[in-house]
Automatic annotation (TrEMBL):
<dbReference type="Pfam" id="PF21838">
    <property type="entry name" value="DUF6897"/>
</dbReference>
<protein>
    <submittedName>
        <fullName>MM0924 family protein</fullName>
    </submittedName>
</protein>
<dbReference type="InterPro" id="IPR048163">
    <property type="entry name" value="MM0924_fam"/>
</dbReference>
<dbReference type="InterPro" id="IPR054192">
    <property type="entry name" value="DUF6897"/>
</dbReference>
Amino acid sequence: MQSFIVEHHLDEVVDVYCGGPDVFNGKVKACADNVLTLEQDGKYTHIVIDKIIALWRT
């Protein structure tokens, strides 16, 4: 999934669903070492790729 995110979503704004109420939003800044990094309003969110259930462009 890491290579898919880098090839198709780098520098795009996405929503990331991790189950339950956990939905994260931001611009994909990096995806390395099994961690996705999103940026929104100057703040960064780091998500373990194994926890991602779905990801879509917003």
